[in-house]
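Worked Example 4.2. Consider the chain below.
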Amino acid sequence: MGFPHLKNRPVLVTGGAGFIGSHLVDRLVEEGAEVRVLDDLSRGKREYLEGSWARIEFIEGDIRRPGDVSKALTGIDTVFHLAANTSVPRSVEDPRYDFEVNAGGTFNLLEACRLGDVDDVVYASTAAVYGEPRYTPMDEAHPTDPISPYGASKLAGEKMGAVFQRVYDINFTTVRIFNVYGPRQSMYVMYDFMVKLSKSPRRLEVLGDGGQRRCYVFTDDAVEGILVAAKNAPGEIVNLSGDESVSVNELAEKMIPELSPGAEIFNTGASWKGDIQILVGDNSKLKSKGFQPRTPLADGIRKLIEWHQNKA
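Applying the procedure from the previous section yields the following structure tokens:
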């Protein structure tokens, strides 16, 4: 799907040097948008933006500092807000940092939008706001009951955005993202598997019992979904997920032949606090708006492994 309405539009991507953010920046540049990036480079990398660097404006700044946010918003029409702590374990270890970045940073952005008269914010939320499922697949009406500081901080951002939409007429679109994977990924389970097997080719340690189930969406499809939501679901809440769900053990079985044939899986029996057992999303609402995940899981895994091996 093309997005001709983005041509020459001034947009800001917070967290635009990160994993998903940098892919979004590349796509926005392809669509002809005038792109500005705000990133503190705590996890993002300039090299992720090398293909678009000459065509963007980059501001190194912190979403927790109101002055940095206000500066980045000057002259902007639309904000794609991806700056966040996205690590559940880190949120458990340091909940204050997690809240200051995710909830406080989102407030700083919304307040700067209100004062600067920016009307459109697309918020990258997370499936972690749902917590353990009452039913699956989880649709947008599923109760929100997070079990980690990360999920709670992202839900706080959602709630603040909903209030700013109601009170100040800021168009706040919430995209609840399930598990994304692909090139430039430097954390989460697929990346962990690649690192572990490079260090120990005969034995793959899998946290928990391996029964944790996820639905995965490739980066290119995730970016498409974000843009579809921004265009066709303004002010709404939508799930962004893939169509295929697998357990962590099944995922390991798909990756081992590509990385280290014959490696054995060892389940630790214990995972980290805040690890949701089942995260399987209902993406029918976003599909009704024009979204369609196109990358089969096997193809996406091969692309991720190829990127990782070329980077090594």
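Residues 95-116 form the longest helix (22 residues). The chain has ten helices and 13 strands. Compare this with Example 4.1 before moving on.
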